[in-house]
Amino acid sequence: MALHDWNLTPEAAIALQKRLAPSVRREDTLGEVGLIAGMDIGFEQGGETTRAALVLLEWPSLALVEQVVHREPTRMPYVPGLLSFREIPAALGAFAQLSQRPGLIMVDGQGIAHPRRLGIASHLGLWLDLPTIGVGKSRLCGQFGEVPSSKGEWTPLTDRRREEDPSDVSVDARGRVTIGAVLRSREGVKPLFVSPGHRLSLPTAVDWVVRCLGRTKLPEPTRLADRLASRRGEVAASGQLSL
DNA sequence: GCGACAG
DNA sequence: ATCTTGTCGC
Question: Which of A40, A60, A142, A203 could be A159's S-S partner, Cβ–Cβ 3.0 to 4.6 Å?
Fold first, then answer.
């Protein structure tokens, strides 16, 4: 993938998403998943500083083997649909500090469950050329029915077909395509929005999320990254960049 | 034109 | 996302 600038106007960012979306691989091309990463972004000083948190867990023990935090000035405001342009730069800074490469990354946000099928998980996966899964806590787009109540069960998240969708995706009688899964990761709690980021299918994405589930709503990779990105669990972060 | 809208 | 008090439950 050709490198591009992150400071773009909304119009340019949307045009870029449309150009990149066709490159997102939705087939399973996972390698040996020895390490699973979890990524999340937090903000400090009223949003002036962006704080990227990255954790590496060993599979299948899910033991935490490495964690890094990277801080840098916030450049872009939050605009629905353009989240990746605001958060990926900082995420890359955190990745640069990692001493080992993960075989899979779980990102807090959407994968292809995005208006132009290029949510932050897909964009990051494309940039790093690594398998990624979007694990969102709320919906950006798409519709879904009642979510089963048992842990591990899910209902499809569908959306009207778009130009950004591959021509070979299955379209139902109503012209809709499945872009993700609304997963009951824990009983009695709001469901999770799981969608393929890059280099894996929806069934595989759901499988990995379920396999990384503990007793909490979020899978371990995202849960730990979330905790590190926020102030909670004040863990001693390794190699950070101060401002 | 009127809502909806990841983090 | 972040700001915040109390409250319910394992």
Answer: A142
Model pLDDT for residues A215-240, shown as the tens digit of each residue? 999 999 999 999 999 976 655 444 44
Range of the domain at A77: 32-137+191-229
In-domain check, residue A151 = no
Nucleotide nearest to A44 (CA to C1'): C2
What's the CATH number where A89 sits? Answer: 3.30.2170.10
CA A76 to chain centre: 19
Cβ of A43 near strand C (under 7 Å)? The reply is: yes
Longest CA–CA span in chain A (Å) reads 54
A123 Cβ contact partners less than 8 Å away, ≥ 6 residues apart: A17, A20, A84, A88
- Is residue A162 a part of any domain in this protein? no
pLDDT digits (tens, 9 = 90+) for A157-188: 999 999 999 999 999 999 999 999 999 999 99
Asked if the structure places residue A86 within a domain, the reply is yes
Q: Does residue A145 sit within a domain?
A: no
CA of A56 to C1' of C5 (A): 35
Checking each nucleotide's C1' against the CA of A229, the nearest proves to be C1
